[in-house]
Design a protein that fits this description.
The protein is mainly β. It has 3 domains: 102 residues, Nuclear Transport Factor 2, Chain: A (Roll), CATH 3.10.450; 111 residues, Nuclear Transport Factor 2, Chain: A (Roll); 339 residues, Copper amine oxidase, catalytic domain (Beta-galactosidase, Chain A, domain 5, Distorted Sandwich). It has 7 helices and 35 strands. It is globular and about 95 Å long.
Length: 708
């Protein structure tokens, strides 16, 4: 199998896995299991846990519950030999805020479904996470809003005059904020720049020109304070300073026009007309399954053609595949999303500080409802997810995942064999199809569409599309160096997206090696023409460690997206397109939910994975893949960034693994042969599927709920 980077630009979910299916050892925790773990931990007097919602920040509370996957060795033994299942456990993230040294501690709780014990999960250096590095909670956001409204009360006249919106008794004309991260300049800080915006549809595109630095490190919100402000290109040391300047009439105001009641530029309401006048008010092409589904879904086990895999949706980081097999043989133990990072530049303090690490915002739990016929075809199977994040019980996210077969619109392979006399010897083609497993992460303004695609020829594709609202700031002339003016008072800030994946390949077993292939040119004497020379390409193998004749090789891809070493701050996500390390049970992920608020000394440091001088010859290896792209926003990103041109991913492809293309097992090809060449008036058409696909209309109307 080869790893190549592509740098172009049912009623129950996995939680209801069939207990007898081996794939269920990787299934997400069911609502019953989540409730059982919470009840067990809440009843432990030594933990002193209080409800997550309400109350003070200085309390002990349960923040996150999700599956703790079994150790690989135990899982492989069970998958190969059956017998006793690996111990099923939950990962619990506990905020200990009600003690002299507040911290965040992780616990392993089990066995499930009836937990009776817990143990500490080891983090960096065996220590806990400092409390100031914890992810944000709904309670802290509510307190942050209260503190901001109170602190900015002296600015209400300014805000009403300049924007027509305010914080005090605002009803339908309210101001809101978006927060950015990291929350400070070094360890121990929890100071956040807040972008003030008008609360209209698409409020991310409506900054008012005010940004506020609020210090909220203390667990007592009464000690929180505004440390600095930025308004319309100028910095101010206090709210009072800014308010007094406005009161004296000495402050240049950034006056914003009244937003229209309809067809606001940040909305999805149609406006304008296409030049050609071709119809858009009727339905376009649709995906259909005229003879029913060609895939099988049992709990969290997905099967399609030669493919079989288990999947789950982690609350922390998103989609995770396990035990990926083709033709019954395992080719990957794990394939998973690790992190999504966006580095921004700008003239405003919030823009220049923004370096989002979306695992820190629990991007896996941001898997809101998928719309039938828009996010996924009408024919898709939709699956619910249950997350336990910053809540007092499991929360159901309806239709958070979908599975569907997709016509690719291009043949998987085809050939027209011409006789070069106006006829042909034969035509043969195999329609292009892929099975798609999809979810989304809406991390505030941005929407990531996460796909794993399974092709009949043994190729697997991992892909992510970026869409949603751009992260934008208030326009100033100085800001033009950091992006584009996309509307009258709006700057679209340039940024780089980096997405990180873990690829634990087990090709013909766990003992693999890493090898790269280069193509270079040679200039040699022509052996069949004296005096002439031949320039031709040839393969050059590097780092050639023996890994078995059928194991194939990894091929690192080249392309744009990942920044060069030294150009990014000390963050957990790697600086490399591809890094290969030995697999260790204590290195399950390349990032963590704590890295966003503590990028200076994160609990997980990827550099430590690759700086230990371990041999990677004939070992259990993991490939860590980074893909990404530079996004310079432009006017066409309004109202939302479009998916074409904003997708990246990579392929897993078999390389001398099979004797031939395994898609020859498909019964979907078409072969046409003339019976009377060269006139070709009578044809033999061979098909192994019904002659006609039949009706292709989905009877159900569009529906959407959106609750979770």
């Amino acid at each position: 199998w080869a790893l190549a980077l592509l740098l172009t630009a049912a009623p129950s979910g996995p939680s209801a896995a069939v207990a007898s299916d081996p794939a269920s050892i990787f299934a997400d925790l069911s609502p019953a299991e989540l409730r059982a773990v919470r009840t067990f931990l809440m009843e432990r007097p030594e933990l002193g846990l209080a409800p997550s919602r309400g109350g003070p920040l200085a309390k002990n509370s349960l923040f996150l519950l999700e599956l703790l996957p079994p150790p690989k060795r135990a899982a492989l033994r069970f998958l190969a030999q059956g017998g006793r299942r690996p111990r099923r456990e939950a990962r619990a993230v506990v905020f200990f805020g009600a003690q002299p040294e507040p911290n965040v501690t992780e616990l392993a709780v089990g066995p499930l479904p009836r937990p009776r014990s817990y143990r500490l999960l080891g983090l960096k250096g065996g220590r806990s996470v400092p409390f100031w590095a914890r992810p944000m909670t709904q309670l802290e956001y509510e307190l942050l809003h209260e503190a901001l409204v109170a602190a900015l009360a002296p600015l209400e006249p300014l805000l009403l005059e300049a924007t027509g919106f305010g914080f005090q008794n605002c009803s339908r004309r309210c101001l809101v904020f978006s927060d950015i991260a990291p929350r400070g300049q070094g360890p121990g800080e929890r100071r956040t720049w807040l972008i003030i915006q008008r609360f209209v549809e698409g409020y991310f595109l409506h900054p008012v020109g005010l940004e506020v630095l609020l210090d909220h490190r203390d667990t007592d919100p009464r000690r929180w304070a505004v440390r600095q402000l930025w308004y319309n290109g100028r910095y101010f040391g206090s709210v009072r300073e800014l308010a007094e300047l406005h009161g004296r009439g000495q402050l240049p105001l950034a006056r914003l026009p009244e937003p229209p009641a309809r067809q606001l530029f940040s909305s999805y309401e149609p406006r304008g007309q296409f030049f050609t006048g071709t119809p858009t008010e009727v339905h376009g092409a649709k995906v259909c399954e005229p003879q029913g589904r060609r895939y099988r879904l049992r709990g969290n086990r997905l099967e399609y053609g030669g493919w079989s895999l288990a999947f789950r949706l982690r609350s922390s980081a998103g989609l995770q595949l396990f035990d990926v097999r083709f033709g019954g043989e395992r080719v990957a133990y794990e394939l998973s999303v690790q992190e999504a990072i966006a580095f921004y530049g700008g003239h405003t303090p919030a823009a220049m500080q923004t370096k989002y690490m979306d695992a820190g915002w629990a991007m896996g739990a941001s898997s809101y409802e998928l719309a039938r016929g828009v996010d996924c075809p009408e024919t898709a199977t939709f699956l619910d997810a249950h997350h336990f994040l910053d809540a007092d019980g499991p929360v159901r996210f309806a239709r958070a995942l979908c599975v569907f077969e997709l016509p690719t619109g291009v043949p998987l392979r085809r050939h027209f064999d011409s006789d070069f006399q106006g006829g042909f010897h034969f035509y043969a083609g195999l329609e292009g199809r892929a099975l798609v497993l999809r979810t989304t992460s809406t991390v505030y303004n941005y929407d990531y569409i996460w796909d794993f695609l399974l092709y009949p020829n043994g190729v697997l594709e991992a892909k992510v599309h970026a869409t949603g609202y751009i992260h934008a700031t208030f326009y100033t002339p100085e800001g033009r160096r950091y992006g584009s003016r996309v509307h009258s008072h709006l700057l679209g800030n340039l940024h780089t997206h980096l997405v990180h994946y873990k690829v634990d390949l087990d090709v013909a077993g766990t003992g693999n090696s890493f090898e790269t292939m280069d193509i270079r040119f040679e200039n040699i004497s022509n052996p069949w023409s004296a005096g002439s020379r031949v320039v031709q390409p040839l393969m050059s193998l590097r780092c050639d460690w023996a890994g078995g004749g059928t194991a194939g090789e990894y091929r690192p891809g080249a392309g744009e997206g990942a920044p060069a070493p030294g150009l990014i701050p000390p963050l957990p996500c790697p600086r490399y397109h591809l890094a290969v390390t030995r697999r260790h049970e204590n290195e399950p992920s390349s990032s963590s939910i704590y890295s966003q608020n503590n990028p200076w000394d994160p609990p997980v440091t990827f550099e430590s994975f690759i700086r230990n001088n371990e041999t990677i010859e004939d070992q259990d290896l993991v490939a860590w893949v980074t893909v990404g792209f530079l996004h310079v926003p432009h006017a066409e990103d309004v109202p939302n960034t479009a998916t074409p041109g904003n997708a990246v991913g990579f392929f897993l492809r078999p390389f001398n693994f099979f004797d031939e293309d395994p898609s020859v097992a498909s019964r979907a090809p078409v072969i046409v042969r003339p019976l009377d060449p060269p006139t070709c008036s009578r044809l033999e058409i061979q098909r192994w599927t019904p002659p006609s696909a039949g009706a292709c209309v989905h009877p159900e109307p569009f529906s959407y709920n959106g609750t979770y």
